Amino acid sequence: MNQLVRPSRLGPGARVAVVAPSGPVVEERLQAGLDILRGWDLDPVAAPHVLGTHGELGYLAGSDADRAADLQRAWCDPSVDAVLCARGGYGAQRMVDLLDWEALRAAGPKVLVGFSDVTTLHQAFATRLGLVTLYGPAAAGADFTKNAVAQEHLRATLFAPETVRTLTSRGTALVPGRARGVTLGGCLSLLATDLGTPYAPTGAGGGLLLIEDVGEQAYRVDRMLTQLLRADWLDGVAGIALGSWAGCGPYATLRTVLADRLGGLGVPVVEEFGFGHCEGALTMPFGATAELDADAGTLTLDEPALR
């Protein structure tokens, strides 16, 4: 795996588009998120269908075509410097095939921010556009609108990425050691269900895998990790950083599963990095070269996530 192209950092007055590629958005939270972005001296613009709903499938923020068109329009708008996803949920897998990747590539590198279901887009933007992306809070998410830690870490990553080159775990090493590689990953369930699609990387070889999930019981986490192992997708992975596992049952049980499934890879594994579905979630870059020190509990980027 190679270091991907880093988009430019944001500055005062930068225009950012907020889109909803997945689940429906709560208007009150959207307005709160837009207010926070305005407070950062950004110029946020909500996409036309960001508050849309699907007529029959209530878990989608409008039709697949509308959600894809919003992302396409925002990315290809030369006045837009970054695209922020309003929330996760489900739906990105349904609309990703509708995007015009030649047009997106021609629009040049920009910042993409989102997490959870947006994992599908992170993978697609890496494989199709070769871009570093940010696995960070949703612009209309409860954690972003209410948690100062999540807000500040995203703000620093967008405006002054050199100040957050080292990310620190709140846990311990499941497997000690150091490793270097290019970051990739996201929500475990999306990585598993994206296997074999045209947009997923063929494997994590040479990479530092960052994974987390929410609401999955231990046996289901076991099943998804086993799927990745059986598909040889984890062959050659350099190291693994684990994020949050909210709603995944007793952590002691889950920790046993993670150690059992990942320990045999013989690479450094460190837990509780504080990204994903948790309070004060850190913003993690995908596609950046970094060093993982499991003993120190640190992930240090060779360069700032954004130029």
Task: Describe what you observe in this structure.
The chain contains ten helices and 14 strands. With 307 residues, it is α/β, with parallel strands linked by helices. The two termini are 20 Å apart.
List the helices and strands and how they pair.
Layout: E1 15-19, H1 27-39, E2 43-46, H2 64-76, E3 82-85, H3 92-95, H4 101-106, E4 111-114, H5 119-129, E5 133-135, H6 142-146, H7 148-159, E6 166-168, E7 173-175, E8 178-187, H8 188-194, E9 207-212, H9 218-230, E10 239-242, H10 251-262, E11 269-270, E12 284-286, E13 289-293, E14 298-301
Produce a short descriptive summary.
The chain is α/β, with parallel strands linked by helices and 307 residues long. Helix content is 31%, strand content 20%.
Tally of contiguous helical segments: 10
Q: Assembly type of the shown chains?
A: single chain
Determine the N-to-C terminus distance. Answer: 20 Å
- Please provide the count of β strands: 14
Q: List the strand order in the largest sheet.
A: 6-14-13-8-9-10-11-7
**Low-confidence segments:** none
Output the keywords.
307 residues; eight-stranded mixed beta sheet; six-stranded mixed beta sheet; 14 strands
